[in-house]
Amino acid sequence: MKLITAVVKPHRLDEIKEALQAFGVHGLTVTEASGYGRQRGHTEVYRGAEYTVDLVPKIRIEVLVEDDDAEQLVEVVVKAARTGKIGDGKVWSIPVDTAVRVRTGERGPDAL
Amino acid sequence: MPPGITIAAEAPQLSAANTGFMLICSALVMLMTPALAFFYGGMVRVKSTLNMLMMSFISLGIVTILWVLYGFSVAFGTDKGSLIGWDPDFVGLSGIGVTELWGTYDIPVYVFAVFQLMFAVLTPALISGALADRVKFTAWALFIALWATVVYFPVAHWVWGEGGWAFELGVIDFAGGTAVHINAGAAALGVILVIGKRVGFKKDPMRPHSLPLVMLGAGLLWFGWFGFNAGSWLGNNDGVGAVMFVNTQVATAAAMLAWLAYEKIRHGAFTTLGAASGAVAGLVAITPAGGSVSPLGAIAVGAIAGVLCAMAVGWKFKLGYDDSLDVIGVHLVGGVIGSLLVGFFATGGVQSDAKGLFYGGGLDQLGKQALGVAVTFAYSLIVSAILAWVIHKTIGMRVSEDDEVSGIDQLEHAETAYDFSGAGGGSLPRTAPAAPPARTAEAAAAATKNTKVDA
């Protein structure tokens, strides 16, 4: 199994969700996150004091998939997340040792 | 407070209309203290929200009690040497008849006393904005009590008390430009010069955590201010209070627009905080002036205050004093502007016949205004700094650096302002037994058996 993690622009969530559903992924986890890459932050001004806000709001999507699907799913997510502008984010995958469905105790690919 | 409404020959009768109006105005002024709490509370970072709210709110407790015990007597009792008042009947408000009228007015003494009480509550609360994030709550409570006693009560007597030196000299302060705003602003400066800056001032970003709260506070301040200003004429027999009401609205509008315009040109955006701050700057500036200027004059007063206060809030970064929420930039500067502009824009046709420079009155009124401003500023600055220094050297004014950084709310109030986490902050009852770690799966299972208690 692999864990695909995507840190992307929040407004792309719906597209990514739809693309994953169309592919056949049954579940995912979404977390609100903040960070910066090459995009850096933006400037805000309060009573004339200017602040550079480095951390930009992002969402972090996590999906557990079978090894064979991983490469393809990374492509699916990247395609759905892309706007072509700076700040589109990153997608990566890492190997996973164990996965258990809490309700039934099923393990491995059966738990997905 | 303006000179009395003269009703020839006869003693005034209690006016139900004016009494009712003044009680409503008193309630409006009371609202300004919680409104100020929200105005300030939204401007601090999340970790000190509750402390900021409490610094204002506690004044409703402390100053109310002091006012009843002796404050009203010191401020509005029989004059002693033009500096303070004293009247044994006013101590504890115990010797005042239910239908006894205030001076030459047609409202009961009780009504005047409670209206002025609300001013006394608000003024120390104004100071708190300069002290965000770092002052021990007990030290602040002690400071409020001492400051009200040796600064606010006497200064209120100077300006509004029969026989007070500024009152007798003819300094025009309709509703509190000197006694409230310059007084609080100068005190803020005095205290921060003693206690110093917040940890990370000019280095860490200190963004307001909730501008909607700031806006809510500013809106409620604006609303309450009608009671503060229009009520300060103590009745409606001659229309002056209505002029004050109109000028309050007009100057505030002008100041908000002026602040926003300055900001747009200088910093490129119309900010919410700018709109709220501009409105408050206008309210402050029209407070001393609204009973002596025309509505067009009020536009000028508001616009000048809006621009100058917007500029003044940047001084702290250049000069290096940490006036956290700009009490000096808004209240001191706004109060000074409003008080001095009386000397230019007074028409001589509303609350008194004193004319300003632009209406052919020469420099006479301007000189009186400047003296009122300078003495109030100097007295409050020096005495407040001494009070803060004494408290700082005895019980200490500041929380420790660690506590300031991790957040004063948890330290001083044992609370946090918001709980947005679905996990409820992961709280455990304080009585949870401390079992030795077993490091076995069975022990973990046993510990969580039958603990489904979520209501």
TrEMBL record, chain A:
Q: What Pfam families has UniProt attached to this entry?
A: P-II
InterPro entries, per database record: N-reg_PII (IPR002187), N-reg_PII-like_a/b (IPR011322), N-reg_PII/ATP_PRibTrfase_C (IPR015867), N-reg_PII_urydylation_site (IPR002332)
Q: Which residues form a coiled coil?
A: none
Specify whether Nucleotide-binding is a keyword of the entry: yes
Keyword line: Nucleotide-binding, Phosphoprotein, Transcription, Transcription regulation
Entry annotated with the keyword Transcription: yes
Superkingdom per UniProt: Bacteria
Assembly and partners are described as: Homotrimer.
Q: What is this protein called?
A: Nitrogen regulatory protein P-II
The scientific name of the source species is Streptomyces solicavernae
Automatic annotation (TrEMBL), chain B:
Subcellular compartments = Cell membrane; Membrane
Name of this chain's protein: Ammonium transporter
Q: Which family does it belong to?
A: Belongs to the ammonia transporter channel (TC 1.A.11.2) family.
- SUPFAM superfamilies xrefs: Ammonium transporter
Record keywords:
Ammonia transport, Membrane, Transmembrane, Transmembrane helix, Transport
Q: Answer yes or no on keyword Kinase.
A: no
**Ranges of Low complexity compositional bias?**
429-448
InterPro entries named in the record: Ammonium/urea_transptr (IPR029020), Ammonium_transpt (IPR001905), Ammonium_transpt_CS (IPR018047), NH4_transpt_AmtB-like_dom (IPR024041)
Q: Please give the Pfam families that the UniProt record associates with this protein.
A: Ammonium_transp
- Ammonium transporter AmtB-like domain spans which residues? 21-418
Region annotated Disordered sits at 420-455
Keyword Transport assigned:
yes
List the membrane topology term(s).
Multi-pass membrane protein
Major localisation: membrane
User: For this UniProt entry, which segments traverse the membrane?
Assistant: 20-40, 52-72, 107-127, 139-160, 180-199, 211-228, 240-262, 269-290, 296-315, 327-350, 370-391
